[in-house]
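QA checklist item 7 of 12: single-chain prediction sanity check.
[x] sequence parsed
[x] length recorded as 341
[x] structure emitted
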Amino acid sequence: MRFSRVEIILNILFWVLTSWMIISFNSKEVIGTEYIDGEKITTAVRDWELVWYGIIGQVFYALLFYGEFFLIHLLSKSKKVAAFILKSLVLLFVVAFFRDLSIKLVASGELSYEGSFSAPIFYFVVAVSYGFIKTWLKNERERSQLELVKNQAELDLLKLQLQPHFLFNTMNNLLSMVNQSDNPKLAESIDKLSSLLRYVVYETNRNKVPIEEEVTFLRNYADLHLLRFEDNEVDFEINVLGTYDQQEIEPGIFLCYIENAFKHGVAPEEKSFISVNIDLLDPKRIHFNIENSIPKPYSSNQIGGQGLASNKERLNLTYPKRHDITINSDITYCVDLSIKI
């Protein structure tokens, strides 16, 4: 977890204040009492040996505090509550043990220090409270950011819809005007375009869609792009491994890579290829890989742009810490994306 500048300052103030209070309270020794003019006066002096013991204790309390904070950070990823509780208790007792051991090793003469669990428990409780509050705020912030991105995407989509029912009806009218026996390719293309529009307008409003629907959408999208080329110009294929076809995925999360391949990876009158592999063998993970040729007029630093950057941000918001992506553009352009769903 990252700490803002304000948090760092507040952490420093917290440790200065609590350390001063604990060390000050535990390092005073009462010498005696006397009565002067009937008033009881108690004399206390500072035991500097106890001050050093207190400083050593605070070092271990800091280890406890931020160690517990780190365990909460791991809990937010793994959700293993039992393991978290066990590790927290072990950390608490280990810190208390080594605190007392360290003080005994540096003590000179008779040790007047008595270790207690009050200070470790105090820092333990504060660390747990602080960690869970920070984790909750982080999750809320990410949820709000994702909501903003989705709202913006929906707004952009609404701008592009332009009365979708009108578009669908128009597409059906065009399809009815086409002689399907004389122009089967045109009729099929209009039908696929209608399916693409329907998917974009309706299915993308859902949080997740079955991977089977997403693959069908990618196939239809690619088929429309292939109409621009001769039959043997572009070698395109989508291979799906596995039978877990009902895994759910963020709609359109792979589309930008197909778009990028057709935009930068193929060229008219030049032999090129686009190979897409989707591995569904693991029911808890989707592995997407796309590789395409790089035409001679293009260089590797010209491939990709705003669409890839936007999709990267979308992945970070939708699958935080649950995806890995690598992009290589040495000989061919290759994107390898693994998502833990």
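[x] summary fact logged: The longest strand covers residues 28-36.
[ ] second reviewer sign-off
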